[in-house]
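Late entry, evening session. Most of the bench is empty. Finally got around to the prediction I had been postponing all week. Sequence below, unchanged from the version circulated by S.P.
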Amino acid sequence: MFSPSIQEAEWAVRVVIADDKAAARGRGAWTFEGKMIDAPVAGKARSIVKKAERCGLDIPDLMKKWQAQEPE
């Protein structure tokens, strides 16, 4: 299995955090870095996070680092 790069894992963590916040506010789609994020993109980000965890990347540390990430 190929591991996601740290940059890819960081992007995915940021999207997951922001998606959880958007969902809590009842938003189905939102923007991130000027791009629309919807369910398929959020699902891809969640998949990358899970794969990164299985590959040994420190996802809890990334989650802590980006905990303030907000949906745009």
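Two things to note before I forget:
Residues 6-24 form the longest helix (19 residues).
The chain has one domain: 12-65.
Will write this up properly tomorrow.
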